[in-house]
Amino acid sequence: MQRLTRILVIVLFVVGTGIILLIHWSRDSQVITPAPSKEDETSVYSMGDVASQTPQGPGLSVRLAVEDGARGHVNIQISNASPDSTFTFLRWDTPFDPRALDLGVVELSDAVKGVEIPGPGLKLNRKMPAPRDELIEVEPGKTLTRKLQLKGFWLPEEGTRVNVRARGEWKAVWKARKDDVPEGELETLAGERVLRGPFQSENTVEVSI
Question: What Gene3D superfamilies is this protein classified in (predicted)?
Answer without folding.
Answer: 2.60.40.2970
